[in-house]
C-alpha cells in the first residue's frame, strides 16, 4: 500500500486488496439511479436516504482535493468549507457523495443550498455513499456492500463529512419514514452490484416522496405559439377574506385533462382578475430570463385543483409543482394551507433517528459571512440588503501574529460578523462617529459624523445641529447587526459608539477611565490600573477593564443611564485626583499634553457628550490588527500587552469565555453612596 496517513483493519485491507491496481480515474461520470414508483420488497436490496442536494465526486490525491459536480464542474470554490475539510482527510481516494445544507433538525434544505454563498447561509455537509478508488486500487468491480464496508472503515470523523448510512428497514418502512419526515425519498441498491460509471443502472433505484396541496384556480395562461389549450393554471387561496395568488402550475396535464379543465372553467370566465394582487405572469425569472409572451384568461375562484410539489421554499413558494387533479368535492372557501407537523415531533420516534441516519448539525457557530473569492458580494442581513465591495483590499499589510497573513477588508467584515452577538449590546441604540479607513491602516483616513442623506433608509439616525455649517445633521445609530456591518463596509476599522443611547442622550451607560500613556512603559499603565481597582474596591464600586487596542487601558464603571454626563465626569475627576496623589511620579491629570511631562494621562474627560472610545471587541487601525479586549482583573498584571489580543485570536477567546464584560451593562452603581465612600477615604 502507498505511504499515507491511512491505516486499515485486517478485514478492510482484505477487501482493498481485491481491487485492481490502477491509477485514479479522471473526470469519471457518476453512476445514476432509475426512478421507480414503489419500494422493492426484497432482501437483496439495501435502502438509504435519497439526499436532496448536489451530487459531488471527491478526488483526494497527494494532499490535493478536487470536488466535481455530476456534470464535471468544479465545486472547489463554491463549497469551500467542504473543500477545506476534505483537504484534512489525508488519504488518496475517489469518493462519491452529495453536498447538502442541513437545517437545525439535521434535514436537508435544498432552497438554502441553492442560495448558499458562505457559512452564514447554513451548515454544509458532505454525505459519502460510495468508494470508487483507494490508494492505487480501483474498487468499481467490487460488490456494493464491500465498497460500503471499506468506505465506513476510512471515514474521518469530521462533522462536515458523514457516511450515508444504510437503513435497518424494509423498503416500505424506509419510504414511509422518509415521507413522514418530508424528505425527498429513498435509494434502493442491489447487493452484489458493481459501480458502472455513467450508466443509469437498474441496480440503483430511486423512489421519491411528494407533498400535496389544494389550491383554487383563478385563471390560466396560453403562451404565444403553443398548440396546447393552455400553458399554466394560475392558482391561489382564500386567506383573510382575500384571494391571494400562490403559484402557476404548468405540468401534469395531458390533452384530455386540459379539455376537461377548459370545459369546467368556461362558465366562470370573467374580464378582470379576481386575485387581490394581479399575478405578473409575464415576469422574467432567473430560470426563465426571456419567458414566452402569454395571454391570460381570468376565471372566478370556483374550482379547486390538487397539486403535488417537492417542498416549500423559505418564502412560501412551491418547488416543482405539478397538477394532480380537480377536487370537485371541495369548496374554495374550505381550502387551507397544509402546514407540515414539526419535524422534531416526527423524528423523535423515528427508526431513522434512532439509527442515527439523521443527525442535527453541531451547535450553530458563526464563521464567515463573505466567501473567500468573490470581490463584490451582496448579502441579506436581518432583512436588509448590504453590498460589500473591494473585499480583497489589504487593510493590515503585514502578517499578524497568530494570523499568519495580511488582513483584508473581507477578513475584517467576517470578524465583525463573528463577534456581532457579543459586541452589539455595547453599540445598540447608540449614535456613532465613523472613523473610516477606506484604504486600510496605511491609507488616508477621516472621521465622519454626518450621514444625513448618505445612509440607506433603514439606518436609524440621531439629529444634531452644526453651528459651523449652520444646518441640521445626523449621526448614524447602530440598532442591529446590519447597521454594524454597514459601518464595516464603509471601512470603519474601529467602532466608536457614544456612552449614551439616543433615547437618553444626556445619561451615559457607564463612566470610563482612560489610562493614556505618553512615553511610559506599559508596566506603569498596569500599575496605574491596579491602583484604580484598589480604590474602587475600597468604595465598593464594581469595574471592568479592557485593553484599548492601542497603547492604554480602559476601565468602565456601570451607570445604567441614571446619571448625567456632568455627574460622570466629576466622579471620574474625584477618582483620578486620588489615584494621581498616590502615584504622582508617572501620572498626570493635566489636559494639555505639554503639561503632562511624558506621564500617563488619567483621562476622565472622556465622560462628556458625544465623546467616544473604541467599543469592546472593536478592531483598531494599528499594526497587527489588535482588538480592544475585555479582561479579567486577574489578567491586569505584569506581562500583559495590548498586542496580546488581535483578529487572529479574539474570536477563539470569546467562544471559550463568552462576554466577560457584560457586568458593565448592569443596573448601575449608587452614585451618591459611592461619593460618600470616596469622601470618607479622603478624610
From TrEMBL:
Cofactors demanded by this protein: Mn(2+)
InterPro entries attached to this UniProt entry: DNA_ligase_ATP-dep_C, DNA_ligase_ATP-dep_cent, LigD_ligase_dom, LigD_pol_dom, NA-bd_OB-fold, NHEJ_ligase_prk, NHEJ_LigD
GO molecular function: ATP binding; DNA binding; DNA ligase (ATP) activity; DNA-directed DNA polymerase activity; exonuclease activity; metal ion binding
EC identifiers of the protein: 6.5.1.1
Species: Flavisolibacter ginsengisoli DSM 18119
Class of this enzyme: ligase
Keywords: ATP-binding, DNA damage, DNA recombination, DNA repair, DNA-binding, DNA-directed DNA polymerase, Exonuclease, Hydrolase, Ligase, Manganese, Metal-binding, Multifunctional enzyme, Nuclease, Nucleotide-binding, Nucleotidyltransferase, Transferase
UniProt keyword annotation of Endoplasmic reticulum present: no
Region (Disordered): 274-293
Alphabetized SUPFAM superfamilies for the sequence: DNA ligase/mRNA capping enzyme, catalytic domain, Nucleic acid-binding proteins
UniProt-recorded name of the protein: DNA ligase (ATP)
Catalysed reactions, as listed in the record: ATP + (deoxyribonucleotide)n-3'-hydroxyl + 5'-phospho-(deoxyribonucleotide)m = (deoxyribonucleotide)n+m + AMP + diphosphate
Biological process terms in GO annotation: DNA recombination; DNA repair
All residue ranges annotated as the ATP-dependent DNA ligase family profile domain in the record: 117-242
